[in-house]
Amino acid sequence: MHSELVASRSADQRDSRESRNGTPQLDAVSLAIIEQLQEDGRRPYAAIGKAVGLSEAAVRQRVQKLLDQGVMQIVAVTDPLTVGFRRQAMVGINVQGDVESVADALTAMSECEYVVMTAGSFDLMVEIVCEDDDHLLDVINKRIRALPGVRSTESFVYLKLKKQTYMWGTR
User: Fold this and answer.
1) Nearest partner of 158 among 91, 101, 106, judged by Cα
2) Which pLDDT tens digits describe the chain residue by residue (171 residues)?
C-alpha cells in the first residue's frame, strides 16, 4: 500500500509539470486514462485503474486533476436533432481589427459550440447549433453580424449529420 501511494505521488508530480507555453505536460498514464474515458466516459475508476496500472483512488485523483487543469471534460454527447436542435451550421467569419475580441464575444454565445481562430479564407470558424432556421437567422444576422469588427460571414448549413465523435484518442 505504501509503495502504491509513493508511486501515485511521484506519478502526480510527473503529471503536473507544465511546458514552456503553460499547458500541462501529460505522462503516459494520464494519456491512457484519457483514452479510457474517451472510449466510455462512464467507465468505473476501478476498471480504468486495472487498465493503466493504478489504484482506483489514484485514478480518481488523476481524473480530477485533468478536469481542474482544463485538459478534458466529461460530458454527454448528444445527437442535436433528437434533443430539439434541428439546425446546425458552420459559419466562416472575416474580422477587421482584433480577432480575439470577436472570438471572445462568440464564445459567450450559448449557440456557438465551437469557436476557432484560423489561417486562410476566414479569421474565425464557428459551429452554431440552433432550434430552427429562424433561430439561426437571428443568431447570424442580429448577433454575430452586429459584433464590432465583423466584416463578413459565410454560412455552411448542415443538411445531415453523418459523423460526430470525439474518439481521436491521445495519439
Assistant:
1) 91
2) 433 433 444 444 445 455 556 678 899 999 999 999 999 999 999 999 999 999 999 999 999 999 999 999 998 878 787 888 889 999 999 999 999 999 999 999 999 999 999 999 999 999 999 999 999 999 999 999 999 999 999 999 999 888 877 777 676
Element (DSSP H or E) covering residue 79: none
Helix (H) or strand (E) holding 48: helix 45-52
What is the value of pTM for the model shown?
0.73
With CA atoms as reference, report the closest residue to 81 among 129, 17, 115, 11: 129
DSSP character at residue 111: T
Count of CB atoms situated within 10 Å of the CB of 141: 11
Grid cell for residue 80: 442535436
Q: What is the DSSP string of 148-160?
A: TTEEEEEEEE-S-
